[in-house]
Design brief:
By secondary structure, the chain is α/β, with parallel strands linked by helices. The protein is built from 23 helices and 15 strands. Helices cover 39% and strands 16% of the residues.
């Protein structure tokens, strides 16, 4: 029964054995006859020990004693390795948890690093890059060739993919199926993105035995059928509050792939700085950046977007208007109300919309799936718009009076004009939730609403009215809120109070927002990680995967995995995110 039990039962049984070692063994040390003790037990027991002798036994000798007395094979304690290792890494050792997985827990599957190859039916340049990447990530240590040769094992993965050059857009199929036994490993996917995710899962399953210096997969055989619950799983980065070099953004993108996050929401410009060199309106970046060096050329943007695309990650640009735009005035002051009151942007002059159209054309190429940002979604902001500057500027007051506009009417006019420009560029528009709070169903039905205000519940209203939604509520999924721990993020549910059918139809996903007021290259990764992993699992895994007790050892293990891969993930149980470890200690407990 012990050998045939589930993995959880084995853990429980061994816990009972340890309890016996602590509490029950002293009763066996009394030098008196134990009634009903069989001859076989007498032979295994050996000589009685006094309490004093017992108390001086080292832990391993104590374990030997109890295992010997109970007739339990020591291999269940020390071998195979997967049983011992899972006490610290949690189960399953995959983050985020797959949609469906089965493991028989009957076989430790040997994996041979030497000459390991990926054989694919439909090769592409992106898959070649991915295979090279995952050879390094899966097999980071030198292998004992002699031991591996004697032991044998799987040394290839057969990859079958229907479309290895799929366009990276919201609708791309990310599903995969991974089957591993002691003879083979097969990965099947509809697109190269599914292959990327399957390779990541495989890399997390493969473990290294430091004693034998060989690789293995625990608890096999495995069958994993996986796909994300939500299509849009983002991290927002903010390059206006602090400039983020291209290399830093690439590090963020690479780290995201380890948790199967798939969207960089790039808040490119804001009131503090305009770090992009617009070919159509070059003074925006020349005058609006913090310094000449803290700017992105169009080729810089293309490099980031291509780096992301080759890894299955979309890049959605945000140009926040009409608020958060004071930096625009440094290059083109006539599109702002006045030098003293410079935002929101001036709705009363055509020059404002000429600049917006030129900028949008630079970013999108004017065609769906084209331009510097080929993603079909574009974020136009619309948050925290204080229209008091319009009421204080005579020329804007005159324009509003001539058109019989209130300030809200002027805001809606601005919104319609900018959305029309984005639609002309064949982009689907995203807006922060304030535009819903002000205008509701007057908004174009194609508008995607992003919920963010603390305590907000506009998602319920939006989906009920047939609008698509992204969910990133502050106080829950804002990564710049350093006091919010991973447990808070893990238990948040985007579809609370929403009918399952509406959730499936209109809730696109959401993500963690890493605003840039207090982050730059020096601390961005440890502010994002490992808390963003909690958001990643909430957006990927089934809704009922939400137990923080079960997740704790798994997120600790994932944090260690990130560290081993060179990602500066902070201790998972920090009271304040990105704090340093409190003192010496192992990765799994900090």
């Amino acid at each position: 029964e012990y050998m045939g039990g589930t993995f959880q039962m084995r853990q429980l049984c061994f816990a009972v054995l340890l309890a016996c070692a602590v509490y029950a063994l002293p009763t066996l040390t009394e030098q008196k006859e134990i009634q009903h003790e069989s001859p076989s037990l007498q032979s295994r027991r050996g000589p009685f020990l006094s309490r004093e002798q017992l108390s001086k036994l080292p832990k391993e000798s104590l374990v030997d004693l109890i295992l010997n007395y109970t007739g339990t094979d020591r291999s269940l304690y020390k071998r195979p390795r997967h049983l011992a290792s899972t006490y610290s890494i949690g189960w399953p050792p995959i983050w985020p948890q797959p949609a469906s997985f089965q493991f028989d827990n009957t076989t430790t599957i040997s994996v041979v690093k030497r000459a390991f190859v990926f054989r694919v039916n439909n090769p592409s340049a992106d898959l070649t890059i991915a295979f090279e990447k995952y050879l390094d990530l899966t097999f980071p240590h030198l292998e004992n060739d002699e031991a591996a040769q004697v032991r044998g094992g799987i040394n290839e993965m057969v990859v079958t993919v229907a479309n290895s050059r799929a366009e990276i857009q919201l609708e791309v199929d990310e599903s995969y199926k991974l089957v591993i036994d002691n003879m083979s490993a097969t990965l099947t996917a509809a697109t190269q993105v599914g292959v990327f995710h399957g390779l990541e899962t495989f890399s997390q399953l493969v473990q290294f035995d430091f004693d034998s210096q060989t690789y293995y997969i625990p608890a096999g055989p495995w069958t994993i059928e996986d796909a994300p619950r939500f299509k849009h799983r983002e991290i927002l980065i903010d390059s206006s509050r602090h400039f983020l070099p291209v290399s830093t953004i690439k590090h963020v993108i690479e780290s995201m792939t380890f948790a199967k996050l798939n969207v960089v929401h790039w808040h490119l410009v804001d009131g503090q700085a305009f770090p992009f060199d617009s070919p159509s309106y070059p003074l925006l970046g020349k005058n609006g950046a913090y310094s000449p060096e803290e700017r992105y050329t169009p080729s810089d943007v293309s490099e980031v977007v291509e780096y992301a695309r080759a890894r299955g990650v979309r890049v959605v640009v945000e140009i926040d208007t009409p608020g958060h735009a004071g930096s625009w005035c440094l290059g083109y002051p006539d599109i702002c109300p006045s030098a003293q009151c410079n935002q929101p942007l001036n709705p009363a002059t055509e020059k404002t919309f000429q600049v917006i159209e030129g900028l949008f054309s630079d970013l999108t190429g004017g065609q769906r799936g084209e331009g510097l940002f080929p993603d079909n979604m574009m974020h136009l902001g619309g948050d925290e718009v204080d229209v008091s500057c319009w009421s204080q500027t005579p020329s804007i007051v005159q324009w509003m009076t001539a058109n019989n506009y209130t300030t809200d009417d002027a805001f809606f006019y601005f919104l319609q004009r900018t959305q029309a420009i984005a639609h002309k560029m064949q982009r689907d528009v995203i807006g922060w939730e304030e535009i819903w709070n002000r205008f509701g169903t007057k908004l174009d039905k194609s508008t995607i609403m992003q919920q963010w205000l603390p305590g907000s519940s506009i998602a319920k209203e939006c989906v009920a009215a047939g609008y698509r939604v992204l969910w990133s509520t502050a106080g829950v999924w804002y990564l710049d809120y350093l006091q919010d721990g991973w447990e808070t993020m893990y238990t948040a549910e985007p579809c609370d109070g929403i009918d399952d059918g509406l959730c499936a139809q209109y809730m696109l996903g959401g993500g963690g927002e890493q605003w840039g007021e207090t982050v730059d290259t020096s601390d961005i990764l440890q502010t994002i990680w490992p808390r963003a992993a909690a958001i990643a699992e909430r957006l990927w895994s089934p809704r009922n995967v939400n137990d923080t007790v079960a997740a704790a050892p798994r997120i600790a293990n994932f944090r260690c995995l990130l560290n081993r891969r060179g990602i500066a993930a902070a201790p998972y149980n920090n009271a304040n995110a990105r704090s340093a470890p409190p003192g010496p200690g192992g990765c799994f407990v900090q």
